Fold this protein.
Amino acid sequence: MVTFRILPVIENRVLGPYTLLRIKDRNMHKEAKCGQFVMVGFPSSLDPFLLRPLSFLSIAEDSFSLLIKKKGRGTEKLSELSVGDELKILGPLGRYIIPPKSGILIAGGIGIAPLYYQSLWMSHGILFYGAKRKRDILFSKDFESRGFTVKTITEEERGTVADLVRENLEILEGQQIFICGPDAMIKALKDIIGGYTKQAFVYMERRMGCGLGGCKSCAVKTDSGYKLVCQDGPVFPLKEVSYD
């Protein structure tokens, strides 16, 4: 049974437009698998009341790291934490996946976080990565050092990651593809990818109240009805996700 843990922050570092939090924990590396996430909150405060779902960025034997984007009160408070501050952690949660040794990763913005974690389970592949500005692109050299080909694009220069994928469609054929980013990006990629592969999967991002399936706030529409990101995901076949 998954239970809450109170764990200390051991690093807070600014990375481009994001904040990297590293949290001390000697058990997560034994429990967490690719594709899973945690719910994060504040043990001594009810402001905000609800926990926030966050993907793993990486996990070491003594700690795990999360990447924070300021979107509201909760994530703003998370980004302001100091070393020694404590967090309430619930997880790992969600269904895990078994990633291929090689494949294609498509990230938009903060969507790089779970795909970076997935890449640590792979031997090589191709990363398509889009962001608003050049300085927002993270981890490119790290991906390359581990055998990944990295293709980037920024809105300030010439377009979105969907444009980048459209320019390289021939690379997609027969590959397993994993996507994470905003809904507009996912919808565009679903139209673009089309018949190039039937093995495309998407990390769905939704607000959650509990992370355990009780509140139903993370429901997503699929071709077979509504499903919960926290219990049925967060990874879904792209062809099943509906934006109608």
Observations:
- The first strand starts at residue 4 and ends at 15.
- Residues 102-240 form a domain with the Rossmann fold fold (CATH 3.40.50.80).
